[in-house]
Design goal:
By secondary structure, the chain is an all-alpha fold. The protein has one domain. The chain is 82% helix and 0% strand. α1 packs antiparallel against α2 and α1 runs antiparallel to α7. The longest helix is centred in the N-terminal third of the chain and has 32 residues. It starts with a helix and ends in a 5-residue tail after the last helix.
């Protein structure tokens, strides 16, 4: 079971990283009805992957790996977990933006997005990608038993 949950954890993590990268790329391009729809779908995939990643990760902590005593005393894990929560909270801003486009997309229109809002969403996606890189570093440190 431990191997299965490790696989699922990694699958969700790679899905999450891919979704953030896709959103970042789409936000840098000219917005069309099609790309706006893709952003909404990608954001849904991102949300599902993040939720599953959290649940599966906590199941691994409590039932399938070294136990909560190990993880709650690991600085690398605490940093990784904290950054994950911060990224999750930050991702609310792009999600709200993408959801606000529903009526325009249903009407077949390109959503009107102020330059400042678009820049803010892009900046948040950039921060999320940078935080994910630090999360990956923490995971590598944890895998080597470091930074306890």
């Amino acid at each position: 079971m431990s191997t299965l949950f490790a696989f699922l954890h990694h699958l969700c993590a790679f899905t999450l990283v891919s979704a953030v990268a896709i959103e970042f790329t789409l936000m840098r391009q000219e917005l069309t009805v099609s790309s706006a729809r893709r952003l909404q779908v990608t954001d849904l995939v991102l949300g599902i992957a993040a939720g599953l990643l959290l649940v599966i990760g906590l199941l691994r902590v409590f039932f399938f790996e070294k136990g909560p005593e190990y993880y709650w005393h690991s600085h690398a894990f605490l940093t990784k977990f904290s950054l994950f929560i911060i990224v999750g909270l930050l991702s609310i801003i792009p999600t709200r933006e993408f959801l606000s486009w529903r009526d325009a997309i249903k009407a077949g229109q390109v959503p009107v997005v102020e330059a400042a809002r678009r820049k803010r969403v892009s900046m948040i996606l950039h921060i999320e990608l940078a935080a994910i890189a630090v999360i990956l570093l923490c995971a590598a440190i944890m895998a080597r038993g470091g930074w306890v």
